[in-house]
Amino acid sequence: MTNTIRDRKHPIGDTLNAAIMILLCVIMLYPFWQTVVASFMSDSEYLTSRFKVLVTAPTLASYKQIFADGTIFIHLRVTFLITVIGTAVALFMTAYSAYGLSKPFKGSKVVMFLIVMTMFMHAGLIPDYMNYKELGLINHFAVYIIPYMINTFYLIIMRSTFMEFPKELEEAARIDGCNDFRIFFTIVLPLSKPILAAIGLFFMVGFWNTYMQSVFFITDNELKTVQEYLQKMINSTQDLESVMLAESGEEGFSTETVRLANIVMVLLPIISVYPFLQKYFVSGIMMGSLKG
Fold first, then answer.
1. 270 part of a folded domain
2. How far apart are CA 147 and CA 167, in angstroms?
3. Where is the ABC transmembrane type-1 domain (predicted)?
4. Distances in Å between the alpha carbon of 187 and those of 89, 154, 170, 175?
């Protein structure tokens, strides 16, 4: 009788959960969808009806203005290089450090304590600036990479994963003459793809959203990130003059639609990565979950 009552309650609970999840998805996705839709509006349509689910007369005027100006691509190139190089370096350094720390050695608890303390203690912006200046990192591309090669939080997650790694495989590899370096590359990394993909995705998003370093440590405009460019463009009081694209016959763009189109172009590259890594995401997080 109890099981029958529970079975009857499940459809209602599942329906309620589905409805809540759909509502949350709509709430979260609508601002992005509205941004995309508005970026394809003409000046006149945007001024008369900004909030639309679909565009009445789509136009590429705003995107043509972006390509004609070309400034955003300078900063996109910088951010793209930061993301690719930074993710590769940070993922390798964090994983290799986590693997080493997952092995028992004298003073390992002290070392881990000192590493964990870096999550809670930070010198501040001025000491960072002075330190980077002494190292020659100010106004240098390396300031985006070197200070962030190892992430303490991700290191702890990966360390817990490697601690659960089957010891028999490593022992068999050592019998065959493999050293720790070869074991790490030929056995540990291939079997850790889910956690590497999940952590790598977090690294990619973090490096793609690089902003503060560009503001405080970079003065050369050629090395500025796209996030700072986007912030300056959105907050700029300078208005773009509405124009008519006579050659294509399209209506003109406005300052707001160009800004929205820039936002879409900045979001699109990083969003396109998610579908390729999504299948590893859940399993990677579960592998790296800390156990009490």
1. no
2. 33
3. 76-276
4. 20, 20, 8, 14
Q: Are the C-beta atoms of 91 and 203 separated by less than 8 Å?
A: yes
Q: Concatenated DSSP letters for 186-197?
A: IIITGGGHHHHH
Residues 51, 55, 58, 60, Cα dihedral to 10°: 40
Q: Are the beta carbons of 72 and 262 closer than 8 angstroms?
A: yes
What size, in residues, is the chain? Answer: 292
Q: From CA 256, how far away is CA 264, in angstroms rounded? A: 12
Please give the structure tokens belonging to residue 97. 């450090």
Number of domain units in the chain: 1
Distance CA 56, CA 279 (A): 36
The whole-angstrom separation of Cα 52 and Cα 70 is 29
What digits encode the pLDDT tens for the residues 102-144?
888 888 889 989 988 888 888 888 899 999 999 999 999 999 9
Identity of the amino acid at 69: D
Q: Which of 48-62, 132-146, 217-231 has the lowest mean pLDDT?
A: 48-62
Looking up tokens 């590769």, which residue turns up?
Answer: 88
Per-residue pLDDT, averaged over 184-189, amounts to 86
Nearest-angstrom CA–CA distance, 201 and 279? 12
